Amino acid sequence: MSQLLYDLRSKVRDTSIDDKNLMDYLLCLEYLSSVVVQGNKRPIANLIVRLSNWSSSTSDLDNGRGKAIERLTFLGPFLAPSLFADDDTSVAIHSFPNGESSDTEVQANQQGLRFLLDMIWAKQLTIVKNLLVPMATRSHTLSFLSDALRLNAIRGQIHFEEGLLAREGFMLNLSVVFLRLCAPVNQVQVGTLYLFSPHCRLLVEGKTRIDGSEQSLTAFTNDLSGRFENAPSFSTECFYLTAWALHLGFVSSIRKYRRRQRVISDLDRSIRKLDQTLKHAVANGYPEDHIHRLERMLKQAKQELSCQQRARFCSETILMHVNLLQSVSRYYGSLCQFLMRLAECDPVTCVSASQTTPKLFAFLPEFFVEDIADFLLFIVGHFSSAVGSVIDAQSFPALASFLLFVICHSSFIRNPYLVSKFVEILSFWNPMRSGSRNSYNDLVKVHPLANTHLVNALIQFYVNIESTGASSEFYDKFSIRFNISVIFISLWKEGFLKPRFLQEANGNPMLFTKFTNRMINDMSFLLEEALDGLKKVKELQALETDNNRSNRLTRQQQMSSANELATYERQVRSYLTLANQTVNLLFNLTTEIKEPFLRPEIVRKLAAMLDFNLVQLCGPRCKNLKVRNPESYGWEPKRLLSRIIAIYTHLDTDDDRFATSIADDERSYSPELFTATQELVARHGIQSPEKLAQFSALSEKVKRLRAEKSQAEINYGDAPAEFCDTLMNTLMSDPVMLPGSRSIVDRSTIIMHLLNSETDPFNRQPLSEADLIPLPELKQQIAMWKKTKEDEFHTSRQTDEATPQ
């Protein structure tokens, strides 16, 4: 019998997944492993786990890393059949001979292959279950399965050497086996301390934790010693091992799939560029050897693209198989419930009872949460209009609850980029992004956690993402805030959570002011970069179409110019996408929320930013922004100007704070600018007559305030040193002392600083607005001194007016 089993293994090892004999070999092992005699005895199952190659020697496994457990053990080849092109090229070539096959052909072939996969997975599951059922073989089988994960643990890393590990198909099949073994397990039955137990089979040492240091983890684990007398239940082990198997198998595969998509995109772009270069070379009589070299490069690139496309079709056959995705969603739904149990969440509201991160949640490896996010991002990225077909309906409430839990308890998670993934998912579920209304977005909106915490949590995250500690934090924040803006604009327009925005603006003024400051900073930077980029694009486009200038350039210079143009086009497209979203957010919020935008530390900055962009759009150099195919960059100057005009009118209140700030803008404002803007808006019908009339009234008001200011300019240059701001050296109006450095500054100066950094600017110690020490006596002295100066000024003017000329 042993020889029969060895021969059967050899047959399977040498058989491709599309070989009709494969199913016979699997059926044979399925039958042999299920044979029962004398009651419940399974002699062949017992024999299998005692074969010499059931589990290869430790040295072989360690030397060969993870690939040895697939290639050297008895059960490895039975779990190895693979559709992935990198594992078996014959399937890709046979099923997808042309990388440019039609969608219909591809889908037909994929459907047949998925039917084959379902049959193989069913047989693999039955074989493993046959070896797990008897108590005599369960431990051996579970050890083999956990060894297969342990020896391939580095698959959980971003970069790893695939040649040392089990192949992708083996790990994916292992994921499916664990998914189906875990299907009957109720998360309520799962032990919460397994990861800290000496019986734990997962390799979690050194893994990044959700919110815990190694030192605190060690102390926590030591406190638990003596609580693990009993071995964990099979349900507990299976539940945790399934999370690990998905991490190393399914999730690792979708990350590789995303990398392949980027390769295909880069190849496609290179082919288009090579094709253009070749046509240009032929048209301009370049040397034949140069043309032949370009032709060879183009041919090689097309061949590589075809190969990558076939590999993509194979990966999609597996990773976009609805049966698999629904199984994954069911497990992750259960895992979400388990994680919220560890976080001490109320089962109805999903609000944690703890103010700090509960330890059982904090010390979990980060991948338990991140894999859920990566799975959902994969779903919304490829099934945005058909999420319901791939996510199990019963699992969705748990997935939605966990998504909101992470966003609304972001302080529980140390890694802000992990939280940002859940924000991105929520953004993709939004009808503004997905293009259609869906029940999942509706479910999120009516969730208790969304109604009580979501707006505040997203505002906090919008503010805090300014600094993450990553080297790429400056640019990362823009894409994260883009996603938050999509959510905010949708919630605002629908009106469902609009009262929450108003509540935050009125009840949490410091936070909302920080939020508006970040918004203004982003809008200022993004618009300036986008408009400067458009000017450069115009220059390079002009060079490209000017044959006289272009022909004087060398081939290298022409290629360099083309590459530079492509770079600026990508940058402009990105900056405009982000800028337009920020402008839209500001436009929507200012329709009803005024006060945070009119605070002294904000209003001058906002007015100056709007004025500067008005100069760009309506000033004498606005023609420099005219480029070919502006819609390809998302460049809609009329729409942008319409939004900016509307923001001006939204903030024009009766107290004239905004109008006064515009009048105080010495850098960009001029009466001529506003007149030119009105003429342009009227000529092109950019705004409604009502809005234009409001803007004209604001223009006249600002013009009057500027004239009054110039006539009543009082010189405070001789102010005593103790009346001047230590930081800005300007006259103070509301002096405060900083408790740490004992420095005295104006309140508006330090508040402006605190909006960007909550530190004392003189010693970098932590500082908040509540820490500021008012100086009422100094404030009164300054007011009295200013009153004296004003009286002297008016007396002097009256004397001058009374003196005959």
TrEMBL record:
Task: List localization entries.
Answer: Cytoplasm; Nucleus
Where does the protein principally reside? cytoplasm
Keyword Cell membrane (UniProt) = no
Domain U-box intervals: 718-792
Q: Which Enzyme Commission number(s) are listed? A: 2.3.2.27
Which reaction does this enzyme catalyse, per its entry? S-ubiquitinyl-[E2 ubiquitin-conjugating enzyme]-L-cysteine + [acceptor protein]-L-lysine = [E2 ubiquitin-conjugating enzyme]-L-cysteine + N(6)-ubiquitinyl-[acceptor protein]-L-lysine
| Keyword Cytoplasm set for record | yes
This protein's pathway: Protein modification; protein ubiquitination
Recall the GO molecular function terms of this protein's record. ubiquitin-ubiquitin ligase activity
Query: Which keywords label this protein?
Result: Cytoplasm, Nucleus, Transferase, Ubl conjugation pathway
Q: State the Gene Ontology BP annotations.
A: ERAD pathway; protein polyubiquitination; ubiquitin-dependent protein catabolic process
Q: Which GO terms describe its cellular component?
A: cytoplasm; nucleus; ubiquitin ligase complex
Give the family, as the similarity comment puts it: Belongs to the ubiquitin conjugation factor E4 family.
What is the recorded name of this protein?
A: RING-type E3 ubiquitin transferase
What is the originating organism of this protein?
Mesocestoides corti (Flatworm)
